[in-house]
Design goal:
heterodimer; A: about 400 residues; alpha/beta; TIM Barrel; globular; B: about 290 residues; Protein Transport Mog1p, Chain A; 2 domains; 7-stranded antiparallel beta sheet
């Protein structure tokens, strides 16, 4: 939970899609060079159009769409992805209790030399990280990783000298080629600190259409420093996994929204590649399309509609309303309690959380104020939602 | 040496006594693990509480591995005794099948399971078990030591405090025993065999290939599904297994035989070319009610 504060300040801070799209550069690091491997299995007798970008100063040339193996349960999907030419595969020590690395290793055994393989360690110390690396190599059945990430760092102080030393040792021993760091939150503080170390070759970062538009400046600063950028959570953080009875399910599954999300990320040339989760052959084929189809105004309209739907209801936890309520209410938390109750049917839990508020805050009523001091920059109807919390839980 | 040996022998007795004391069932709505179920253990820091909406705050992207199995909520504490820390989390899933699914995806198939709840597993730094719709996990540190004794004691204490079934989901028992790696049976939450048509079902490894079973909402829909599967593959040969079946070869699924029995679609994949798939499938079909 320590990281939640910075996450709240940053995650999803902007609901607006950058209207004209992000600055799209055309340089020779992005190209449509031929697939390094044949593509025998793409459906309907066609061959997928694969595009590649150079991953920062590493010189690696991953396909723009890679493969996040985290929730993949069948190795045949990974095998087929490699067959059609996807060449970047990502896993982590902790995924599926360690079973994921074993499956990925077995699926890619015959292709090891033609793919880019990455894994991660969440270990907090040098010794534990190096132990994790040896386990990863053993489970993956390889003698080296192309990229080894320090996993899920959100604060500069988590990036310790010991962990960077572990990566240096691993490089010297030939167990890894490049040092990476992965981050889901806290990017405004973390990116400058990571760049300043001059240690990292690659940053794996959450990046999707719901995030703060200011994120692009951070990506560019890393690119300018020669650090490769890999985008994850490109489908807005697991919306693909939503249950069918979840009110957001329809919103994110209609009209090709998932493909639009991936294309939205790929239009940003400060992102070198992506690792969307893929669980079946249909998703794989859909993701391959993102490399050959441009992000269109229709896609933009589609995503904007999704955001417009979410805007009044869902707090993006940007922190802009912290301390703004004249009565001292934790506005973001109260909006979240309402979405627990109404969005997820978790009334008891929502009320339980509301009741953890000090008594004087539980007794505040929005209608006692003539005018609300809180204006959500992202369009959440604050008075309506906070009043609803008071109505439901107080 | 003597006092140390005696001390070591005394530990299980102390743990067992503690387990008996802690046997009262918790109210279903109170999932919070307790540290004082064992002597000398104290809670460190605040208790944790997460829902599907906030689990990301706790475990970042790893939360997807829980959400995909129908995660509802989690309560957790960190317990300390001396230099040893145990991070204990209890996840409540939407149903016992989903909890089993999360357990099976997290267990190490190379390590034996134990009779804790439906099933449990303990390794030097980690312990898990499933009971009813709850999935319990404990991670121990420091990683340099073997904490399996403490982990096992906590798991058993927690098992006594949780209600719910101790039987695995029915389909787990339908896989034929011959050649089966029993530790390999998993609930695949979506896209069994990597096919989006097979939405959710069980998968098991055999020494000669893999077997799966998927339940459709009705016999009609399973008939439709079989039709779509038949269309998906090339050069299918009919197979008289269950209500209907077919056999073919696929680049990734190898030699396969799919059959339907009532609302169930099941079969074997990745079989050796000369394997008698029909014989194996007949045994499988006979076990499906």
């Amino acid at each position: 939970m320590e990281s939640s504060s910075s996450r709240r300040r940053f995650l999803a801070a902007g609901l607006a899609i950058p209207a004209a799209g992000l600055a799209i550069t055309t340089d020779d690091k992005h190209s449509q060079s031929p697939s390094p491997s044949p593509a025998p299995a793409f459906p309907k007798g066609t061959t997928p159009k694969l595009t590649y970008r150079t991953l920062g100063k590493t010189g690696l040339r991953p396909t723009e769409v890679g493969f996040g193996c985290m929730v993949t349960s069948d190795p045949s999907v990974i095998e087929r992805a490699a067959d059609v030419g996807i060449n970047l595969f990502d896993t982590a020590r902790g995924y599926q209790g360690g079973n994921n690395e074993r499956m990925v290793g077995a699926a890619l055994k015959a292709k090891r030399n033609s793919i880019i393989l990455s894994s991660k360690t969440p270990a907090p110390t040098k010794e534990e990280a190096l132990k994790d690396l040896d386990t990863s190599l053993r489970e993956l059945g390889t003698d080296h990783l192309d990229i080894w990430y320090l996993h899920a760092k959100s604060k500069p102080e988590q990036v310790t000298d010991g962990l960077m030393e572990a990566q240096n040792i691993a490089k010297q021993q030939g167990k890894i080629r490049f040092a990476g760091i992965s981050t889901h939150s806290g990017q405004p503080e973390l990116f400058p600190a990571v760049i300043a170390t001059k240690h990292f070759d690659v940053i794996l970062t959450a990046y999707n259409f719901t995030l703060d538009p200011n994120m692009n400046a951070l990506l560019k600063s890393a690119q300018d420093a020669g650090i490769g950028i890999v985008g994850m959570k490109v489908m807005a953080g697991g919306f693909r996994q939503l249950k069918q009875d979840n009110p957001r399910f329809d919103i994110f599954h209609r009209d090709g929204a998932m493909l639009a999300m991936l294309k939205w990320v790929l239009q940003n040339k400060n992102v070198d590649t992506t690792i969307p989760s893929i669980t079946d052959l249909d998703q794989l084929d859909q993701n391959l399309r993102a490399m050959s189809e441009p992000f269109t105004p229709a896609d933009e309209k589609l995503l904007a509609a999704r955001l417009e739907f979410l805007r009044p209801l869902y707090c993006r936890m940007c922190g802009e309303c912290d301390g703004v309520c004249a009565k001292g209410l934790p506005v973001a938390d109260m909006v979240r309690y309402v979405s627990y109750a109404e969005g997820y049917g978790q009334f008891a839990m929502a009320r339980e959380q509301f009741l953890t508020l000090p008594a004087h805050l539980q007794n505040v009523r929005c209608y006692d104020c003539q005018e609300c001091t809180v204006t959500c920059p992202h369009g959440v109807r604050v008075v309506e939602r906070v009043s609803r919390a008071q109505e439901l839980f107080a | 040496m003597k006092p140390r040996a005696a001390g070591a022998l005394a530990w299980p007795a102390v743990y067992c006594a503690a387990i008996l004391c802690a046997a009262a069932l918790l109210p279903a709505e109170d999932l919070l693990p307790r540290c004082d179920v064992l002597p000398d253990w104290k809670q460190a820091g605040a208790a944790r509480s997460y829902t599907a909406d906030t689990l990301y705050d706790y475990m970042d992207g790893n939360s997807e591995g829980y959400l995909i199995y129908g995660f509802d909520r989690m309560r957790g504490v960190t317990c300390k005794s001396g230099a040893v820390s145990l991070v204990i989390d209890i996840s409540e899933m939407k149903d016992p099948e989903s909890a089993f699914g999360l357990f099976a995806s997290n267990r190490d198939p190379r390590v034996p399971t134990e009779a804790i709840g439906v099933l449990g597993q303990v390794t030097p730094q980690r312990g898990i078990f499933v009971k009813g719709n709850r999935f319990v996990e404990i991670s121990a540190s420091p990683a340099s030591s073997d904490h399996s004794t403490e982990i096992r004691a906590f798991l058993k204490a927690l098992e006594g405090r949780l209600d719910g079934t101790t039987s695995p989901p029915e389909p787990v028992g339908w896989f034929p025993a011959q050649g089966l790696d029993a530790n390999s049976i998993r609930l695949i939450p979506q896209s069994v065999l990597g096919l989006s048509l097979l939405k959710r079902g069980y998968l098991a490894k055999y020494d000669f290939g893999r077997a799966f079973i998927v339940k459709q909402p009705s016999t009609d829909s399973s008939m439709q599904l079989m039709g779509k599967l038949r269309d998906k593959f090339e050069d299918v040969e009919p197979a008289a297994i269950g209500d209907e079946g077919f056999e073919t070869t696929d680049k990734y699924l190898g030699h396969l035989l799919f059959f339907r029995k009532g609302p169930y679609v099941a079969g074997f994949t990745n079989l050796p070319e000369d394997f008698d798939a029909s014989a194996a499938a007949e045994v499988f079909a006979a076990r499906i009610p």
